[in-house]
Amino acid sequence: MARRNANQGFALPAPNHAQLRDGVARTAASSLLVLGIGLTAAAQAAEQEKPSQLPTVKVEDTAIPYKAETMSSPKYTEPLRDTPQNITVITSDLIQSQNVQSLRDILSNVPGITFGGAEGGNGYGDNIILRGYDISNNSSDITVDGVRDSGRFTRSDSFNLESVEVVKGANSVYSGAGSVSGTVNMVTKSPKNEDVTTVTAGLGTENYQRVTLDTNKVIGDGVAVRLNLMTHANEVAGRDYVEYERWGIAPSIAFGLDSNTKVVLNAHFQDDQGWNDYGVPIRMGREVPGVARSNYYGWHNLDGENTDSRSFSVSVDHKFSEKLSLRNLSRWSQVDGRFVNTALQGRVCIEEGEVPLGTAPNTAVCTASGVYQHSQGPRAVGRDSINTTALSQTDLTWDYAIGATENTLVFGNQISTERGDRQNFNNIPTATVTVDLYNPNSYWDGPVERILSGKSNSELDVVAFYASNTFKFSPQWQANVTLRYDHYTFSQETFTVADGKITSPPEPEPDQPYTPPAFKFDDELVSGRVGLVYKPQENGSIYVSYGTSANPATPSANTTCNFNSNCFIDPEEAVNYEVGTKWDLYDGKLALTSALFRNEKKNARVASGEDSVTQQVLEGRSRVDGLELGVSGQIRENWSIFAGYVFLDSEMLQSVSNYTASNNGDPQKGHALANTPKHSGTLWTTYTFESGLNLSYGLRFASGAYIGNGPTTVGDVTIDPKVPSYVVHNAAISYAIGQATLQLNVNNITNEEYFTTFSTNPNRWALPAPERTTVLTASYTF
């Protein structure tokens, strides 16, 4: 892939070559629900026939395919089965079996997760929507090894990941400022006490090419090194011009393995060259008639994204005794992002003389037929950003007893500082450009001049303290109480730019120290969580929990602060109620989970509606009620499964301020939340033969979801802007021959047409899913 310097834009090669509806989704959802209930009943019956209690399964004793036993963070002291919160863990063997790389693809295994698109040309990043609420606007919602991961960018590769943990519900007590719906934690690979090397190479359709190396070597008594390498390239099936290329290296060394003091040092370097693909235009929540899903409507010789990420970490685990231990993790990381975007916010003209599709009747009429006009929104708009984070997190774990009550206390502290520097650019003139709607010319042959349009520097300092105590009153009863306090200090300097030049304040000279921004804003957050667990048997639990979360207006240094509207507002608050049950069956090899929950945002930020009040007000409210079922592990010794189903009943309780509602009503009140399908489910199951042959089948489905919060009115017409439901089938076959394995993955077997991402505006854009792809992978372990 050839690219020029980011300051000169992106040069890309020539283009690559190239429904099922709600009833089907509901049928699939019902089938999976019945299957889950049937498995539960059958498994419970099998348990009742056993004469003795099931033994406790420890993660170091047995590796059960697709099933995790514990969380990676010391904040979670109990097995998943006894933790009063719904948690899904995507294990390394599941990631390998599906041959998925990006965080988005990994999270597609979790029902109830969808993906949104960035507006305003801000680039995608990982825009994750969990149980109806965006969890990607806050650095604390996405973590690495249990600590916040700053910078809104696309986590594109899993070459250095051991697992991905998705914690559902209000989670500020564990991660800091966060949304009501949960957090995503990526667990990185670490040296281990064995010599093992795996080399993997893959080739596939759409010029898929991938090579990885994972080697671990013991070099001394308790000392081991590990090295992970990756190089990858692919185009996207069914999309013109869109392609990705990246490489990564992750070295690490551990001292004191299997001793009372373990020290691990690791580094991570990755370079990504990719795309912010905005897909195809939609109007009134529907595909534009006659538009091919492969069409590219930006400027393929200018648009693109280049991200360089690097980090250095050191963790120290020390066990003072069997009852007292200490862990500290310190990390420095930096993400450099440079991108150029062209979003689809222009005018779609079907017939000359008619108003553009999806616009109100008083809009100027079309002057030509069958054209798309780049008249609004970002057009080859660029942004360079540097996000730097330094943090330290310490956890002290103490097992103690008070009378007959056994307790585990975790006391922790987090200190972090983040710096975000951003520059925005215009690269082409802002005049309207018209292209063929059905066969767009996406090559920009006009003038290109990189002109500065905005600049800001931000800092965020966080000091947090938290304490969590698990009370074990008896073998049947235990409770957990967690409290956390965060102090945020956010500061930002916004430069005034005119004619491509900074006019005020003047930038410091290169050899002068940086002057702290004049604007500062302090915030204090207090969050809590309480859970009660009843264990009718050793292998099962029933729990209830209540948690709160707080979301400040400035959750990260990646925040762009608008002084008149969103900087001086108190944090949004949310609560989570949950009741559930978890069972480990078949000698601990199969985990069944179910949960009923309510997520409620109590005071969302909305515009005041009053000309005299420019600042937003905390008067929005919304709620999501749901049911989640999950199964993971082994049904039989040679049959593994990972599956889940989620039902989400979302409702906008108030989408405008009290002032606006009293004067103009609230048209979105009572409607479902955007990007929140009512039914969704996933399945991946593998059957292993004695010959070394593995057959895997996967399914994902989701019912239709709103673009925007409910129906939308355009002129005198009210539309129901929903993307249609979909069912996607995937499969894999692998065969082990000694130390070598061949694996064939086929994704989207039936070439299902659906959208993976779409704008929050029903008159903008949606991104089509990739068409059928096939990848053959060979690996050798020695």
Q: If you had to describe this structure to a student in words, what would you say it looks like?
A:
A hairpin with a 4-residue loop joins strand 16 and strand 17. The protein is mainly beta and 782 residues long. The strands form 6 sheets. The protein has a 22-stranded antiparallel beta barrel. The N terminus is likely disordered. The longest helix has 27 residues. 6% of the residues lie in helices and 51% in strands. The chain has one domain: TonB-dependent receptor, beta-barrel domain (Maltoporin, Chain A, Beta Barrel).
List keywords for this structure.
5 helices; single chain; 6% helix; 22-stranded antiparallel beta barrel; 782 residues; 51% strand
